[in-house]
Amino acid sequence: MNRKKEDLQKNTIDNTKKAKMTTNQGLPISEDEFSLKAGERGPTLMEDFHFREKMTHFDHERIPERVVHARGFGVHGEFQVYESLEKYTKADFLNDPSKKTPVFVRFSTVAGNRGSMDIPRDVRGFSTKFYTDEGNYDLVGNNMPVFFIQDAIKFPDLVHAVKPEPHNEIPQAASAHDTFWDFVSQNTESAHMIMWLMSDRAIPRSLRMMEGFGVHTFRLVNKEGKSHFVKFHWKPKLGAHQVVWDEAQLINGKDIDFHRRDLWENIDKGNAVEFELGLQVIPEEDEFNMDFDVLDPTKIWPEEDVPVQLVGKMTLNQNVDDYFAETEQVAFHPGHVVPGIDFSNDPLLQGRLFSYTDTQLIRLGGPNFHQIPINRPVCPFANNQREGYNQMNITKGQTSYHKNALNDNQPEPASPEEGGFEHYNEKVEGRKVRARSESFKDHFSQAKLFLNSMQQHEKQHMFDALSFELGKCKNMEVRNNVLSEVLNKIDREMTEYVAEKVGAELPEQIEESTYEKSSQALSMKNTPASLETRTIGVMITPDVAEKTLKETKDKFEKHGIDVSFISDKIQSVGDVRVEETFDTVHSVLFDAVVVLKGKEPLQPEAIENLAIAFKHKKAIGYGVDEGNISEVLPFPMDAKGVTNIEKNVDQFLQDVKGHRIWDR
What we know:
There is one protein chain. The chain is an alpha/beta fold. The protein has 4 domains: 24-61, no CATH class; 72-375, Catalase HpII,  Chain A, domain 1 (Beta Barrel); 445-520, Up-down Bundle (Hemocyanin, N-terminal domain), CATH 1.20.1370.20; 529-657, Rossmann fold, CATH 3.40.50. Helices cover 24% and strands 17% of the residues. The protein has helices at residues 3-7, 49-59, 155-162, 178-186, 191-197, 245-254, 258-268, 323-328, 347-363, 445-452, 456-471, 476-485, 492-502, 546-557, 604-615, 649-657; strands at residues 72-81, 101-109, 124-132, 135-142, 212-213, 218-221, 227-236, 273-283, 309-319, 341-343, 535-540, 562-567, 571-573, 576-578, 580-581, 592-597, 619-624, 642-644. Strands 1, 2, 3, 4, 5, 6, 7, 8, 9 and 10 form a 10-stranded antiparallel sheet that branches. Strands 15-12-11-16-17-18 form a 6-stranded parallel sheet, with helices on both faces. The protein is globular, with a radius of gyration of 28 Å. The protein starts with a helix and ends in a 7-residue tail after the last helix. The mean pLDDT is 94. Its cofactor is heme.
C-alpha cells in the first residue's frame, strides 16, 4: 500500500500538466503580470481582488517553525513485520507479516533553526508515522537512546540553554557556548547524554547511516492484557557511520544541505533506505531487577543484558512532492498510539504527551491539523469534534454530542473487542508530590559505561569535542564547574586532558564512577559496513585517457559505489562526462578519493584535496597513465590506506568499506 499515491492523490494539484491559471475560487485569470490601476501610471485599485488574494497568500506563506527540530527532511516508505508479535502486543500492524504499513519519516536536527546547517554537533530527530488500519501510530525518537533530562518540566530550561543566547542570538545550531554548559554543570542528570553528544554519534555521515531510538520506556500489551516494558530501536542496514569534526565544519561550508541532498539523491536514484526495527523487552514483573530505574530516560538498557530483537524492516523509497505540505506540516505526537502500545510512567514521556498537541495548535493554526493530508489517517475517523480554524471536513447530521437519541447515539464508542483503545489497567497510588524517585539519582554510572565502551579513537574524539565546546565558553566559572561537577565524576583521564586544553582549573581528584561495565553495542566498531551507495571523488588531470576513465568507473560502480569525476573544468573526455570541478566539490563531500594522472602536472587543488582526505583518514587510491605521481602526492605512497588501484583495487575497496583508516 503506497500512502503517498493512494491517499494523498485527491489533495494533489499537478502543476506539471497544462492548465489555465485561476484564483483560489476557480475564476480564470487573464493577466498575472500587472496589477489593476487607474490609468497606466496611476495608483493601484482596491478592487483588484486577484492582487489582494495573491499578495495575502504570499504574506501568510510562512508558519512558525518548530521550536526544536526545525530543520528536517522527510521521506515516504513502508514497514513490514517479520513474524507476528502477538505474544507481546495486539497491535495489528505488528501481528500480520503479510501487511505493508505505509510510513512517513522525518529526520531533523534539534537546536538550529530551519535554515541552519545539516551537520552541527547535535542530536538528530528520527520520527516515524505509521499509517495503520487502526489509526496513526507515531514513534517520535532520536538518534541517541537517552536524553538530557529526567522530567519534562525541565525541557523549556534545556532548550532555552542550548538555543542562541538571548542577548545576542549567538551561536546558531551549536551547544558550544556558556548557557548550555552552565545548564549541564548545574543539572548533572545530563552527564550520560553529554557523552553521546560529544561522541561521533552527533555528526553522522548520512541520515541513512545512523541509528534511531524511541528513547522512552513504553509498554506492549497483548490480547490477554499481559504487559511488557519495551524500548524501540531502528538499526540501519548500511551501518552507523560518522564524519570527523574538522570534516563536518568544512562540509557545512561546502554544502549546507549535505544530509538532505544525500537522502534525496539516493532515493531519487532508486537506492531504497532500509532500517530494521528492534525491540528490547522486559516483562513487567522484572521492572526492579536492573541496577538502574527502567523508567529513567537518561539510562539505556545494555544490549548484553537485554538483547535487541530485530522484528521488522522499514523501507524508505519515495521522496516528497511538496516539502512544505508534507515535511513541514507533518505533526508527530508520542501520544498517537494504537491498541497494544501504551505508556510507562517515565516523567519525561508523561510531559511530552501534553506538549506535542499544544505545539501543533500554534504551528498549524488550530485543532484540525489532523485533517492536513500528510497527517490524515488511512482508516475512517468519526467523532463529535466540530468547527475550529482550518476545518476541512463537511460533517452531516443534526447532533454533535454524546450521548444522543436523535442520531441513534452515533458515532458510538467501540468496545475493546471491536478495536477500541483500552488504557493498561495499572495500579497507581501515592501522595501528590513534586519529587524524584531515589532510583533516578545515579547520574554518572552509565556515562562511564559509554566511555568504557569506546575504541581509543572514539574516546579521543570525545575528549577533543569536549575541549572544543568548553573552549568556546567565555566564562571560566562555567568551564571549572563542568570539570568539577560532571567530567571529574566520570573519568579522571578525560578531566585532566580537557582541563589542560581549555586552561581551566584541574579539580581535586575524587572517587570517580567505579562502573567498569562496557557494552560492545555502543561502539561504532561493530556496525555493519557496506560499499553500497558509498561515494568516490575521482580527480583527473585533463589528459587522462577515456579508456582509463571508463575502466575506473566500471571498476567501482559494479560494487554499488557512486563515482564523480572532478577536473578544473566541466568537459567531455570521449563519451565520459566530467561534471564536477574543484570549484563545485571537495574531498570532504566524498567517502574516498582517487587521483588519476596523465602527463600533465597535478592541479594544486587536487593536491590540497588529497591532503585533506589523508588528514580525515579516508581511503585514497591512485592511478597513472603517464609520468610519475609520487613526487607530487602530499603524503608517502606507502602510507596505510593509500593504494595503487591498478595493482590492488581489492585492498582499496576494503579500505572504503571500512569507512576510515583509523590507525593511519
